[in-house]
Amino acid sequence: MTFISGETRKNVKRTFTIFVLVFLLASLSNYANAQTSDKVVILETQSGKIVIEFFPQDAPKTVENFLKLADSGFYDGVVFHRIIKDFMIQGGDPLTKQVENQGQWGTGNAGYNIQAEFNTIKHNRGIVSMARSADPNSASSQFYIVHKDSNFLDEQYTVFGRILTQESFDTLDKIASLSTGAKDVPLDIEQAKILKAEVVIRSEISDLLNLGSPERVLSPTESLTESPIERYTDEKLGISFIAPSGWIIQQPQKTAPEVPDIVITGPISEGFNPLISITIVDSDGKSLEQKMIETRESFQQVIDDGTLEIISEEKTTIDGKEAHVLHAVGVFESEIGAANLKFNEIKIATPDKFYTLAYINRVNNFEDHLENFETVKNSFVILSAGGEIYSDEVNQEGGGCLIATATFGSELAPQVQQLRELRDNSLLQTESGSAFMESFNQFYYSFSPTIADYERQNPVFKEIVKLGITPLLTSLSILNYVDMDSEFEVLGYGISLIILNVGMYFVAPAIVIHRIKKYV
Q1: What is the pTM of this model?
Q2: 240: which residues sit within 8 A by CB, 6+ positions away?
Q3: What is the pLDDT of residues 103-133, one digit of tens each?
């Protein structure tokens, strides 16, 4: 696919726009292994058409096998030989092409078996799953389409697709309502026959239903409303962050420095997947300002011709590090037409690398997942060589967090780590908590790096700081034993602890000093 043409635009692909290409490839060509494949299969029957989309992330080998068989003509002429209304319709047996073989219908296959790929997708109405014998790895070519929810089958059969047009559901109902005889074989075979199976590109189907992500079986530890939040750490890349629940984390092939190291793919909506990316490049001795000038020059051409519009940009500080924030919108051509996209990009500078966090989505859906980007951004940390977090904690090269520096390697270090996890898993998951941390970090890191540097230079001063913050850490540890599941609880406990610490650090000493003066 070509989105930007002309010799003058070649450099664009090595900067900001290269992420756009990754996004479009992810949404249109399954680049990031998104949940739904670009290819769909149309089953033409006398009763109507059935369009099937696939879940290659959950059942890659099964999807590959089904597409291969459909493309080869294997399914042309086979019959849905087993029909049970309010349960399912089953087909895919090559023996059903011959009426004289009716006694053997249901026993045929493609001449080989494939491994089971059981997954957590529920067997709801319209789901397509592989038929098998008692052997879990006996699936081959036979499949079934669920007529009514049949969740007793969940996690025991390989779900690999679902039907996705209204005509498909109407056709399913027609075939499921056919009269049947012995062994649930339809009496009107012609109405249950697949005349032709055709593999086409998804964009060729005009009446797709917006079905959202398939419903899944919840594990005993999962909530009905929220999945567990886990921190993702890649020690090789030297980064750690909290990914949005249910999003897919991928590492694209690094074909150019500006290709993202991490791509986090969200659920598809209106044919597109929202993406969050993390890109790491060497600074090569350049300052953040020099890097931004270089970047701006490289895509100036697409700004001039109206392809890209910078909405706003500003310099800021994130965890004591220089950063640049950019907001932009762009119109990019793809094989299915123009895509109106919006971007948020944050570039963080360290002495040897630039870390770029970016969020991209269609303009109409941008706000839907902005909170997920905030989660990644606020939880993002850089790891030291030993795998310990130090981005906003301990920076061995200077600056950093005065609290983490004072407690580093001491008996208080585990307590600080618990508070980090509390921050990431509870505080940053609420709107008020995220807003507070953003404001607090701006204030805190205006003086923290200077104090942290002095702590390294003066061990006695470091011990004084450690003693001074011990009551603070003790009071904050109370939060490890309370539930903060709502905005109200976060605000309530937060205000209480602020009042407590004001009392410890200001009111109590003032009272003591006042009484001393009274008796002196």
Answers
A1: 0.43
A2: 231, 232, 233, 234, 379, 380, 381, 382, 383, 389
A3: 899 999 999 999 999 999 999 999 999 999 8
